Amino acid sequence: MGAPASLPSENRRRSSTPILILLALNRPDPRPEGVYVDIDEFLEDMQYAQLIMAFRPLNGAEQLRELLRRYHAAPAPAPGERASMWYRFRLALLRWWNRWPRLTLDQEWRGPEGERLDGTNNVTERTIGWWIKERYRTMRTYKRPQSILNVSRLIAHLGSNSDSPALANLYGV
Hints:
By secondary structure, the protein is mostly helical. It has helices at 19-26, 39-55, 60-71, 85-103, 105-108, 123-128, 131-140, 145-160, 168-171. The protein is built from 9 helices and no strands. Helix 1 packs antiparallel against helix 2 (39-55) and helix 2 runs parallel beside helix 4 (85-103).
């Protein structure tokens, strides 16, 4: 299955190699009856599914459904047996396909007045702007105790006197 036109040809987000790919390369399970995909196609489908999940195209649910149809015949393991790589991939595709509306909620949600969700998970991060640097700095700590006092005074002054550009009042100059 070739790369879809709606996805970039190169995977920009590198992730760790999934266990199923290692299993397919080192110890592939025998292909079950009804699954007409060889190991090379299986590996291509794994990479294709990773691209779908990474880039979340608008037609991703349909693409996942098409992949799922290729593996629908992979049987569940008998009690006490290990699931085959074919069945595990089938379950992963089914899980992603079922969760697609939640995974892409940020792309499709509209508020009562047509509002959309922005690209961040925390709108407050954008609202506080330069204050975020201070939050990160406190997480990493300061090098000198005096810096804590200096920066905290500056932040308090700027926050309470946002209309006043004069910083001379801070040090009583």
